[in-house]
Design goal:
Distance between the termini: 69 Å
Radius of gyration: 27 Å
Shape: elongated
Largest sheet: 8 strands, antiparallel
Order of helices and strands: HHHHHHHEEEEEEEEEEEEEEEEEHH
Structural class: alpha+beta
Number of helices: 9
Strand content: 15-25%
Length: 343
């Protein structure tokens, strides 16, 4: 195919040189003006589309897990840092979009600055990004759909609620653990000298006695010797004050807010009427007939197909649905903030 970008009277560039051949701003704008793509989304649709990308399916779940099990209040600091980085990225895109007000996003910007090969790489990365993003969102929506269906009495077969090969609890199961090692995350305990401390997510201790724990239907587990390993921490209730022994050195917060180092073997009194957590390393001795191997995540497949059909309808139609979903997401977040501020 002839190189239409080569001026008359000059020899055609070699294939290697063409890999890094760039398009000028005037050429890109001329091609856009004569193209068939027309602008259909206005400023409001674009803003809501951006908000829809920011408020993903996992913000209602992953944030709480990260704060409770790993980072604690530092999650909010990470949100601030991520927001600052995104603001600078947005400014970069705004500058590029003002110079090249055409469709194509990062693909077009790469074509104008790096060349054809860089644009091809960027296009492949965008396809990979959107494909993975759609899969992750579909899995998140699948979890919501399965939970909602369960709450209203529609039981989806567990074989069709997770990715192929996952082990899923077919029905709610309970099991006993003896002298378990538990996480003392967020527990306020009393040391031998009477000092009260609040433990962080990394604090683990052994507690004496036999305790009953439960796995909900559709919980995902991993096969292990003697049962199935937990993939999510689960709570066990402490009815009476007990003496817990730290299994490793850790730090805890005193009432003044200072970090107090604690050695392994330290005895801590855990108060009554609290819940400690069995960590993900715990083996649950549940019968094999209560666990099934998943075949496919059917709700996620349905979500992907529904989104595909929506896109077939057109950009305007999909933007309208996105606007509705964004309003729902924002309303949920505002409701959580209001409830949290009043509790």
């Amino acid at each position: 195919m002839a190189n239409t970008n080569t001026p008359a009277g000059k020899p055609a560039s070699s294939p290697l040189n063409r890999l890094f051949q760039r398009k000028s701003v005037d050429q890109i704008q001329s091609e856009y003006a004569s193209g068939e793509l027309k602008r259909t989304l206005g400023p409001l649709n674009l803003v809501l589309l951006g908000i829809g990308c920011i408020i993903g399916a996992g913000i209602f779940v992953r944030t709480g897990n990260a704060a409770a099990l790993h980072a604690g209040p530092a999650v909010m600091i990470s949100f601030v840092i991520a927001g600052i980085v995104c603001a600078f990225a947005g400014l970069c895109y705004a500058e590029l979009a003002s110079v090249l007000p055409v469709s194509g996003s990062a693909y077009t910007y790469s074509y104008a600055t790096i060349g054809e090969f860089g644009a091809w790489i960027m296009g492949a990365l965008l396809l990979l990004e959107y494909g993975l993003a759609a899969s992750v969102v579909a899995v998140g929506w699948s979890g919501y759909a399965v939970s909602l269906a369960h709450d209203i009495g529609w039981l989806i077969p567990p074989e069709f609620t997770q990715a192929a090969g996952k082990f899923v609890v077919a029905s709610a199961a309970s099991f006993d653990v003896t002298d378990p090692v538990v996480s003392l995350n967020a527990i306020t305990g009393t040391l031998a000298d009477g000092t009260q401390v609040q433990f962080l997510a990394s604090s683990e201790a052994a507690i004496p006695g036999v305790y009953t724990a439960g796995l909900e239907q559709y919980a995902v587990v991993n096969p292990a010797e003697g049962g199935y390993g937990l993939t999510n921490a689960i709570d066990i209730a402490i009815a009476e004050p007990i003496q817990a022994t730290l299994t490793k050195a850790t730090e805890a917060l005193t009432t003044s807010g200072a970090l107090h180092p604690l050695p392994a073997g330290e005895i801590v009194t855990v108060p009554a009427n609290v819940a400690v957590q069995l960590p993900t390393s715990t083996i649950a001795p549940i019968p094999a007939d209560q666990v099934v191997k998943s075949i496919a995540n059917l709700p996620a497949v349905v979500v992907v197909l529904a989104m595909m059909l929506l896109l077939v309808v057109g950009v305007s139609g999909s933007a309208t649905v996105n606007n509705i979903i964004v309003f729902i997401k924002v309303a949920v977040i505002v409701a959580f903030c209001v409830v949290g501020a009043n509790t």
